[in-house]
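Thread: quick sanity check before group meeting

JM: Hey all, I'm pulling together slides for Thursday and realized we never actually wrote out the predicted structure for the chain we discussed last week. Dropping the sequence here so it's in one place. If anyone has concerns about the input, flag it before I start.
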Amino acid sequence: MISERLLSKIVEAVTKSYLKLKPCKDTMMPAPEPGKEYMLYMHVPFCERLCPYCSFNRFPFAEDRARPYFKNMRREMLMLADLGYDFQSVYVGGGTPTIMLDELCETLDLARETFPSIKEVSAETNPNHLIPSYIEKLEGRVQRLSVGVQSFDDGLLKQMDRYDKYGSGEEILARIKEASPHFVSMNADMIFNFPAQTEDILISDIEKVISSGASQTTFYPLMASPSVQKQLAKTVGPVDYAREQRFYEIICELLVDTGAYDFGSAWTFNRRGTADDAPASGVMGSADMIDEYVVNYEEYPAIGSGGITYLGKNLFVNTFSVAEYNQKIESGRMSMMGQTRFTLLDRMRYRFMMQLFGLRLDKRQFQEDFGMTVEMGLPAEMAFMRASGAFAKDDANELTLTPKGRYLTVVMMRQFFIGVNNLRDQARQALTGEEHQLIFG
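JM (edit): ok, ran it. Output follows.
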């Protein structure tokens, strides 16, 4: 549709203007603001094999590379504690965080010991790690486990080079069913709009998610940065955005309109009946734990090679070199290598996008935080969304979304994350020697 194409171009241009990496000479992150709640992001950049569509920092796994890395990530975590940080939530992404389970468990145990306010831990994993020996150690340490499924279709799995690594769609489905009861929230991480994906394949994927017992599912639109576009085109084909909206409508119809799931965000869906499942321990319920942590925590420090921090006016990117990461931490400094600074307009746009992605923008909080109404601060954005019929509710207190507004928010987030992937590409270009060969060779 015209509004989707126009919005894509606008967000692409805007992200290019402010997501430009400049050298960072800071040796420590800014200290926390008193009273502000933060989430801690940890990045584990190791995988058994690399997926062609992934733009995150990742390297082929080798134990002699990974074990000292985990040790240094724990050191960097303690540096945050020395700065005065405490955290209610921890999110471990990758890569494959469960690639060395003993190291991950030691890291999570230290996090809970160091930050007594932690209520929940989320971690990503792959289907081959949904086995009893892994589940036994993760249960209790991790409340929300997100498994990268992408699709249950064997043809697509083979095309993505995932079939041999992780098994057939039926095997993956069986493992999710077995693992789900052991966690407060089990998220099935899916991707839609693969070039070879048909409507029938998508419908089958959705039906399998519903039958899996997963308390949550996330359906990301396929998105690629320049660094992976050529490889993506070779392996799965070029992306066709013209059918993206229809695929998204199918997802919403089958998950939400049938009564199986509710919206957690524009592309996260929570199984109905899980909103009040928080145990007496104070751990969040599965409906409170959504895949995009940026909705619940606008600001977050990130540790680990390739982590991205957002604090106030600053976005920091940690070095993508594992060797340089280890050197920096062992010398007593943190791992930032680049940064970009957000203007007031950038920060207002970020809030606008993230809160709409979370399905509700608080107008009163916006005015309190930025000293102006959203209409005054973002007149063009508000005019476009209103003209597009994006708002279901638009009063003095809040903005909520129509179905069309949800899709337009998906478009905004897709283009924003492509912009973030471009930022990652800028950091990745600094790799040299063996590390450059591992990624680009």
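AS: nice. Confidence is low (pLDDT under 50) at residues 275-284. The two ends are 39 Å apart (CA to CA).
JM: adding both to the slides.
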